[in-house]
Design brief:
The chain has helices spanning about 40-70, 75-85, 125-155, 160-170, and strands spanning about 10-20, 25-30, 35-40, 100-105, 110-115, 120-125. It has about 180 residues and is of the alpha+beta class.
Length: about 180
C-alpha cells in the first residue's frame, strides 16, 4: 500500500497493521479519528462493494448517455435511470459499515460516488478513484499475508527483534510501487 499522508485529518486510507500474534490486519481509516479493522472475508466484501459502487455510477452515466442520444429528454432520462437504480442488485448489507458508497448521477449525466460515514455524506469520489480504492482493498488481502511472512522471516532467519521487524515491514511502502498508478 502507498504510505499514508502525514496529515490524516481528511481522506480515506487502507493499511496493513501489525497484530501481536504476528499476523497483519486490514484497517480502514477515515480522517484522523475514525478507523476500524476488517477480517479477510469482510475486506473481500468491502472491496467488492466499493467496486460495485464505481461500476454502478459508470453504468448509470452510460445509461443516461444512451437515453439522451435516443432523444429522451434530460428529465425522462433521469427518471429512467432512477427506475433502473431502484431495481439493480445491491451490495451485501454491512459490507462497508460504518462507511457507505452510494453511486449517483449529476443533472449533467456524470457518474459519481458519495462517501457516507454513519449516514452523513463526508465526501465524493469519481468512479475511477472509487474503483482504485476497492482494488486497493482487495490487494490489501494479499499484502497483509505478505507482511506477516516478511515479519516472520526477519525475526526467524535474520534474527532481529520483533520491533525492528515491524518497523521494516512498515517501511516497505516506501519501496513498493503505488498500486493506484
Amino acid at each position: 500500500m502507498a504510505p499514508e499522508p502525514e496529515d490524516q485529518t481528511e481522506g480515506l486510507w487502507l493499511t496493513s497493521e501489525p497484530h501481536p500474534d504476528g499476523s497483519y490486519i486490514a484497517v480502514v481509516s477515515v480522517d484522523g479519528d475514525t478507523s476500524w479493522t476488517l477480517s479477510p472475508p469482510r475486506l473481500r466484501k468491502y472491496g467488492l462493494a466499493v467496486i460495485r459502487a464505481a461500476a454502478n455510477a459508470e453504468y448509470e452515466q452510460a445509461l443516461y448517455a444512451q437515453l439522451t442520444s435516443m432523444d429522451f429528454s434530460q428529465e425522462n432520462a433521469l427518471t429512467i435511470v432512477s427506475q433502473f437504480r431502484s431495481r439493480r442488485p445491491r451490495a451485501e448489507p454491512m459490507s462497508t459499515t460504518p462507511l457507505a458508497f452510494e453511486s449517483g448521477l449529476s443533472a449533467q449525466g456524470m457518474g459519481f460516488v458519495k462517501l457516507m460515514l454513519n449516514g452523513k455524506q463526508i465526501g465524493q469520489l469519481d468512479p475511477d478513484a472509487t474503483r482504485a480504492h476497492g482494488a486497493g482493498a482487495l490487494e490489501l488481502l494479499v499484502s497483509c499475508e505478505l507482511d506477516a511472512v516478511y515479519r516472520k522471516v526477519l525475526t526467524t532467519f535474520a534474527q532481529i527483534t520483533d520491533d525492528l521487524a515491524v518497523a521494516a515491514v512498515s517501511d516497505m511502502g516506501r519501496h513498493r510501487p503505488d498500486p493506484s498508478l
